[in-house]
Amino acid sequence: MRPFLDKVMPEAWQAAGAFSSAIREAALGRGLSSQEVEFIKLRASQLNACAFCMDLHAREARKAGIAQQKLDLLPAWRESPLFDDRQRAVLAVAEAATSLPTTEESDADLFGARSVLGEEAFVAAEWVAVTINAFNRISILSGHPVRPRDAEGKIVR
Q1: How far apart are CA 124 and CA 31, in angstroms?
Q2: Is the pLDDT of residue 151 over 80?
Q3: CA–CA distance from 68 to each of 40, 108, 154 (Å)?
Q4: Cis peptide, bond prior to residue 10, ω within 30 of zero
Q5: What's the pTM?
Q6: Cβ–Cβ contacts within 10 Å for residue 83, how many?
Q7: CB burial readout 104-126, b (16+ within 10 A) else e
Q8: What does the pLDDT look like over 51-104, one tens digit per residue?
Q9: Which of 90, 88, 66, 68 is nearest to 77 (CA)?
């Protein structure tokens, strides 16, 4: 069992949290919605198989107003007509930033995403994706546990 990175070096964890908060605020200020931010975080966490972050960001996505049906279909967003152009754009950014190196297909997706989002929101989406990928790695390396929760998200003992 590895040590919890956040427990052994709490100042780094606090700095990472401050970084994440700054990126979120900057992204919201550059045209991304809370829902779009959570789509990025949840999709990247799915691709990285980070159970802790998947649990957290599924709850955050619901709080942001994302319908459960979209959350259920998120792994198949390309095959579902339920996702609008902006949602598809941020999901393409999440996937390209998570599955490196980029391919010709993901480069084409990124070009399309930039045309849908505009430069500032596109760059904001990339920053959100970079940040959640870092947190996925911290959580996976630390072995952060997923705790049972009730319907309101409170930990069940």
Answers
A1: 8
A2: no
A3: 16, 29, 18
A4: no
A5: 0.92
A6: 19
A7: eebeebbeebbebbeeebbbbbb
A8: 999 999 999 999 999 999 999 999 999 999 999 999 999 999 999 999 999 999
A9: 88
